Amino acid sequence: MQFKRYYTPNRELSIDESLVETKARTVMTQYIPTKAHKFGNKLWMLVEATSGYIIHFLPYRGKRYDPVPADDTKGSHIVKKLMTEANLFNKNYHVFCDNFFTSIPLVRHIGTLRTYFKGTLRANRQMPQLLRNPQLRENESLFIRQRELICVAYKEKQNRKTVRFVTSVVKASAPAHGHKPVVSSVYSKNMGGVDLNDIISDIYDDKRKTKTMWNRLAINIFYQMVLNALATEQIEHRQHRDRNVQAAHQPQRIKKLARGKQKNCIVCS
After folding, report:
1. Which residue spans within 94-202 are E strands per DSSP?
2. What are the residue boundaries of the PiggyBac transposable element-derived protein domain, all occurrences included (predicted)?
3. Cystine design at 62: which of 27, 74, 97, 215 (Cβ 3.0–4.6 Å)?
């Protein structure tokens, strides 16, 4: 994978799954009812949170060809593998994941590798008992902290489920009445990198039908290359524009001339 060679991503990264539409009958074909295209080949994606730039991805090849260590979960294993192959550990990056990937042991492990984490937590994962069954009212939050690890439970409305977060970087700040916790706002802002990439890819997809799975994967990878080139160009243009705006707003310094007539001065000569 050469994507990470030509661009250094910003601090915030997001990891999620993407689905390449196909109904080919293979061990790689997945059914995900929450996706727009419910059948397809799953890709584990590591992208920049703000631009959707793909840094690294892995195809899901099925349980037979992608075994998981006995002492780990599938999601945790994918996060470690993506970050290791992209060579992004020990560089102070912030990783955002949904509840499929998140676990407290994962947050502690990557914390030892100078990598920070924010994600939602499933109710059946390892967590403090107080966080598993919190008694919260509307717009109420619960914070639990152990060293650098912070767990948050938040209930936005009375008829909604409690959302659990785990983070190793956001402060445990109590929100004002009627506002979400800081960790919830930061998570919502930076978690949509893969979804942004899927939306842009779907715009340019020609929906060409094929019975061969590898054709769909090859076409999708080509689209990702084009989109990465487009994202890089847009980022460079934005940075160049910001530099020009900053230079235009800098105060102009006026130099004081020495006394007497100046040689070759249009005003004095």
Report:
1. 94-97, 116-120, 140-146, 149-155, 163-167
2. 2-229
3. 27
